[in-house]
Amino acid sequence: MAQNSQVSIVCTESREQGIEKALGLLGINPVEGKSVFIKPNLNTADPFPASTHPDTLEAIIKLVKKMGPLSVTVGDRSGPADTEEVMKKLGIPGICARHSAGLMNLEELPKNRWQRMTPDGMHWRDGFLFAKPVMEAGCVITTCCLKTHGFGGVFSMSLKLSIGAVHGDNMSELHTSFRSMRKMIAEVNTAYEPSLIIMDAMEVFTDKGPMSGPRKHAGLMVAGADRVALDAVGIAILKDLGSNSAIMDTPIYEQEQISRAVELGLGASSPSEIDLLHTPESAEVASRVRAILDRG
């Protein structure tokens, strides 16, 4: 019997402590002796939760450095904003320099460092180009925000985060394919498998997004290795906080990003395959999230 996907949920007001506790609950060290690629959410320079909070990225790098990696590289592609400018505005080069981590602007990769992906049954017309450095890394850690997506995605969490490793030339097709957009987002995730996902849910956009919108304070850090399970838990948190009709009125596993990802075998196929781990102070929130997950 396959093991359930474990997702840790921690109530915290400290990003650094919350990340350490969330990873501690999982009891894993996926980075030891490996080249680590950290993929944040740097789509724009708009402040958190539109993009990864600099403190979250720094806390992750510091923790990973203690776990014995061979190397650590941070990389992403922004859009439509210029990636270099986004990284500078968010202070990413300084963070990487302080902790001897490499920094990779995926927008600047040469053509031979992109892999065309054309799996059968995809909704992409001619497939999509995916960044080889992400595919070749010994360990990929992604860190997403928790937010709604007002431009067709419905929500933007760990599955949507992978779009930042797709070539910019593919974005026009994605953004004009409203009927297939959610399925196309899920399909991009067939290109790689993360070893760890950290979702910063200290504050969330409960409507509109992904760059701005109504926000609520949640005070949570969530972690796991299963993108479907992470996003399912994220949607449950949005339902608990109160969100828009696209979130509140649709069962979690009927969301197209989730259902297509399940079809592709990318993660937990139902709430019963998700184990929620929590600290004692997080028990009440975890109980509410569990109940929402089970209701769908």
Describe it for me?
- The chain is an alpha/beta fold and 296 residues long.
- The protein has one domain: Rossmann fold (3-Layer(aba) Sandwich), CATH 3.40.50.
- It is 34% helix and 23% strand.
- It is built from twelve helices and eleven strands.
- The strands form two sheets. Strands 1, 2, 3, 4, 7, 8, 9, 10 and 11 form a nine-stranded mixed β-sheet that branches. Strands 5-6 form a two-stranded antiparallel sheet.
- Strand 7 and strand 8 form a beta hairpin.
- Helix 1 packs across helix 2, helix 8 crosses helix 11 and helix 9 crosses helix 12.
- The longest helix has 15 residues.
- The chain starts with a strand and ends with a helix.
- The mean pLDDT is 97.
Keywords:
296 residues, alpha/beta, Rossmann fold, nine-stranded mixed beta sheet, two-stranded antiparallel sheet, 12 helices, 34% helix, globular
CATH homolog superfamily: LarA, N-terminal domain
* DSSP summary: helix tally: 12
CATH topology-level name: Rossmann fold
Low-confidence segments: none
> What's the pLDDT, averaged over the residues?
97
Task: Write the SSE topology.
Layout: E1 5-11, H1 15-26, E2 35-39, H2 54-65, E3 71-76, H3 83-89, H4 92-98, E4 102-105, E5 114-117, E6 128-131, H5 132-136, E7 139-149, E8 154-156, H6 158-161, H7 171-175, H8 181-188, E9 196-205, E10 215-224, H9 227-241, H10 245-248, H11 256-263, E11 274-278, H12 283-295
Parallel strand pairs: 1-11, 2-3, 2-7, 3-4, 7-9
Antiparallel strand pairs: 1-10, 5-6, 7-8, 9-10
